[in-house]
From TrEMBL:
Protein's UniProt name: Uncharacterized protein
Region (Disordered): 1-76
Residue ranges with Low complexity bias: 32-45
Biased composition (Basic and acidic residues): 1-10, 60-70
Length: 76
């Protein structure tokens, strides 16, 4: 029987190590990272979609297009 206690002793050191593993369950807590998926909520900042409202700038390119039309007519 004295041998059995000895076997238990080697297991003792392993137990202290096991508590460290239980800490790993903290990683499962990482699923809280879904907060990052919340970043997609940033699209809520339709500010970018509002940029399409800048079509006012595209109107400037339209001016050169008119000039091109004039050039085309000249070629004709």
């Amino acid at each position: 029987t004295p041998k059995t206690p000895q076997h238990e002793q080697p297991e003792g050191p392993e137990n202290p190590e096991t508590p460290v593993k239980p800490e790993q369950p903290e990683k499962p807590e990482q699923p809280e990272q879904p907060n990052q998926p919340e970043q997609p909520e940033q699209p809520e900042g339709p500010v970018k979609p509002e940029q399409p409202e800048q079509p006012n700038q595209p109107e400037q390119p339209e001016k050169p297009e008119h000039q091109r039309d004039q050039k085309i007519r000249r070629h004709q």
